[in-house]
Write a structure and sequence with these properties.
With about 280 residues, the protein is of the alpha/beta class. It contains 13 helices and 8 strands. The chain is globular, with a radius of gyration of 21 Å.
């Protein structure tokens, strides 16, 4: 991709070319304020997951709006490759769309066309709505601004996607080939074994395809250790687990510190009594 091309892309993607950008998946806590809290904690992006949450776009509209105001890139993962799911999420204000289980370059190209306005794609036009923060204005200007802001993350989760990953990454409408490691490891016959040689080779294949075509490689990391390992490998858009895990980790760490402190204080206070 030329310097002129990269100058027009979403700022998050430009940043990802210089350092890893970290975010998390929201599966449970679709609170309007959550994107702002994550931004304050240092997150670069947040993903609202409509695939595994059981929630619909109505639940995501408020967090999307707050995320736009807070200045954190907000991605929506739709449940499947359907044009109406992609277009309504974009019209609600999503900065980017993730689609699971993209199997081929042909499928990725079709989905990518839904994210851009003609003549680049086939996205239907509507302005003065949530998608453009109710600004409206000249259609052509609004269309080109939206095309520059929005981006597409096809998920690489199957052997079929791996076989076609170079062709997928080569597509102009694909921005972040994003690995779902649990599905990919499962479909490679090593479910949840994130250090298995077959998965390691698959990850290298994704990285090579992205490097060859100037795309940002992404991945979901279920632990801090894996987030560090995979960002060191070269993945540049990395999810640190999901909201459920983050809450559990933080609360467990707090409780451990409290209990450790209480045990220490108890040992000190009991000393003089036992000596009396």
């Amino acid at each position: 991709m030329s310097e002129a091309d990269t100058s027009r892309e979403n700022p998050l993607l430009r940043t990802a070319r210089t350092r890893p950008v970290f975010g998390t998946f929201v599966i449970e806590f679709f609170s309007p304020g959550l994107p702002t809290l994550l931004k304050q904690a240092g997150a670069d992006w947040v993903l609202l997951d409509l695939e595994h949450s059981g929630l619909g776009l109505d639940s995501a509209r408020a967090p999307i709006a707050v995320g736009r105001q807070a200045g954190i890139t907000t991605v929506v993962r739709v449940p499947g490759p359907h044009q109406h799911l992609v277009s309504t999420a974009l019209d609600a204000g999503a900065d980017a769309i993730m689609v699971p289980w993209v199997e081929s370059a042909e499928e990725a190209e079709r989905i990518a066309s839904w994210t851009k306005y003609p003549p680049v794609g086939v996205r239907g036009s509507a302005f003065g709505i949530a998608g453009d923060q109710y600004v409206g204005g000249t259609a052509e200007v609004a269309q080109r601004a939206a095309d520059a802001r929005t981006f597409f993350l096809p998920q690489i989760e199957t052997p079929g996607a791996l076989d076609d990953v170079s062709a997928i990454a080569a597509l102009p409408g694909v921005d972040v080939p994003f690995v779902g490691p649990l599905d990919l490891s499962t479909n490679l016959g090593v479910p949840g074994n994130f250090t298995a040689p077959v998965l390691e080779r698959a990850l290298e294949q994704v990285l090579e395809a992205c490097a060859a075509h100037g795309k940002v490689p992404g991945i979901f990391a279920p632990t801090v250790e894996l987030a560090r390992r995979w960002s060191d490998m070269g993945f540049r858009m990395v999810s640190l687990a999901a909201d459920t895990a983050l809450l559990r980790w933080a609360f467990a760490d707090g409780l451990e510190a409290l209990r450790r402190g209480s045990a220490s204080e108890g040992a000190v206070s009991e000393g003089p009594a036992s000596e009396a």
